Each structure stands twice: as C-alpha cells, then as structure tokens.
Amino acid sequence: MVIVGFTNGFGNNLFQYIAAKQLADFHEQELFVVAPPNYYAKSDLESIGIEFRSPPRRQPGQQAAIQVNDSNYQDFFSEKITDRNFSVSGYFEDYNFYVDNLSEIKSWFPTVRKRNDKDLVIHFRTGDRLFYKNEFDYKPTCEQYLKAVKKFKFDNLHIVTDMPVWKYIDRGELEQMSFHVNVPPHQRVDLSRSVDYFNSLVHGFSKLNPIVENRPIIEDFNFIRTFDNILFEHGTMGWWAAALSSASKIGVYGPWRPWKGESNKNLSQVDLKGWFQWK
C-alpha cells in the first residue's frame, strides 16, 4: 500500500495526493490518505474525490514502509521494487513529476464546463501571505500585475482571492482578519506595509472593474478551472487549477518564490503550450 500524510494547505494537499496516487497506480497498490485532526480542507478535498482512510496496522514481521520524499520520489517508479509498502511525506512541488502525465491526472478529478467567453481570471494569493516579512519585499507590484494583464485579450476580469474583502482597508481591519494560517508576530512585516500593498492592488485594478466574489476554496478552485485565460503568482492551488484546466493562455509568476533562494521550486518553468512566465 501507499500511505500519504497531508500537511496544512489545500494546494499542498493536491501535490501530495497526486504524487502518492501516481506511485500507487504504478505499483497497483491501495492508496491511504491521512489528514490532520479536524482538518479545515477535508470536506473540500472529499468533494473532488479524495478519500480519507486510516491504513491497517503494521503486522508482526512485516517490513517497515519505504520512506518516500521529494528527493527520492522518482527512484521508486521501478518494477524492481515489489511487495513493499510506501510512506509518502513531502511537498513534491516539481513539475517534472507530473508534466508527462497531466491527461491521466485530469481524469482523477470531476470535470468542469469551460466558459464560452474570453474572460480573464486572476488568483491573488493574499490572506496570510500579506504578513510574512521574509517574502514581503519579493511580492510583485501592482504595476507588474497590470503589465502581465496586458498580455491577454479578454472581455471581463475576475479576481479570486482569499481576502474576505476587495476594498480599501486600514490596519485595524487587517488585524481583525483571520486565515487558515496564523502568522506569529515575530514573522510579520509591519502591518501598515501590508495594508499599503493590498490597497495598491485595489486601486490599480479599479479601472478594470474587476468582478470579485467570496467563495469556499473548492469553489474557487473549480471556478478558475473554467477559464480560458488564467493569471496567478505562486499559489499551489492556483497552479493545479491552471494545470487541470483547458485554458489556452496561462501566466505564472516567473521567479515563483524567489526568497527561497536555491530551494526555490520550478513551478513557473512549465514547458506546456500556452504557459508563459511574467515578472
């Protein structure tokens, strides 16, 4: 069997599930998905066909499971390895793991009806990401976003964001907002900078009359998948929504997460028709 333990984050879970399912399918084994207790995204993930269940206990004399992580993942797609259990733990954010198998991966999830218009959707990963001081100075400016928007020919603009509001805010309002990750005070940038950054986005996009609605995360995920034009920064949910869509044009932020240095991922380097990097 293949066992995968989920960490926090809907987009992270998609990478973890898909990586584990690919391994389970290769070895023709059962897949067991384990979530943290009282996990906020469990029902959303179940709605797209991810089944949660606890694996059976290890039997006396049974070999310990092989530990599968980001660095050794591809080593275990080998017919020489038989009759072993696998314990999958990591983030698996490497597009090379999936790019040649996207058609099969798409079949694992419920289909969505593609829109018959040329509207553009932007996924803004804001929320708790407005707070982290280690990445704040690397965030793309509103001007960079607007420059990327000009690469699309579209009618209406839609914004998907984990911010509960799309309007000018002040420090007090931001302090009262809560997200699925609570950033400790010592990791936070000064909130006035977070407020100024978010308000710059609201101001800069106001002339495009964006359509913004609040939805549960699973509805955001499926909503993005319906578009022919998709633009996003570095969110893992946005990446899979784009990868599992039928969009003709997809813009992904080129540096991805540059503050990570040498450990930065390659998820903006996808060599697929219609994908491009923006900076």
List strands and helices in order, with pairings.
Elements lengths: L1 E4 L4 H18 L3 E4 L7 H6 L18 E3 L17 E3 L13 H5 L13 E5 L8 H4 L5 H8 L7 E5 L9 H6 L14 H15 L5 E2 L4 H9 L3 E4 L3 H8 L5 E5 L21 E4 L1
Parallel strand pairs: 1-2, 1-4, 3-4, 5-6, 5-8, 6-7, 8-9, 9-10
Describe it.
With 279 residues, this protein is an alpha/beta fold. The protein has two domains: 2-106, no CATH class; 120-278. Helix content is 28%, strand content 14%. The strands form two sheets. The chain has a six-stranded parallel sheet. A four-stranded parallel sheet has the order 2-1-4-3, with helices on one face. Helix 1 packs across helix 9 (236-243) and helix 8 runs parallel beside helix 9. The longest helix is centred in the N-terminal third of the chain and has 18 residues, at 10-27. It is globular and about 65 Å long. The mean pLDDT is 95.
Helix content: 25-40%
Shape: globular
Order of helices and strands: EHEHEEHEHHEHHEHEHEE
> What percentage of the residues does DSSP assign to strands (E)?
5-15%
- Number of discrete helical segments: 9
Q: What number of structural domains do the residues give?
A: 2
Q: In terms of structural class, how would the helical and strand content be classed?
A: alpha/beta
Number of strands: 10
Strand order of the largest sheet: 7-6-5-8-9-10
Stretches where pLDDT is under 50 for at least 5 consecutive residues are none
Radius of gyration: 20 Å
**CA-to-CA gap between the ends?**
42 Å
Mean pLDDT: 95
Report the major sheet.
6 strands, parallel
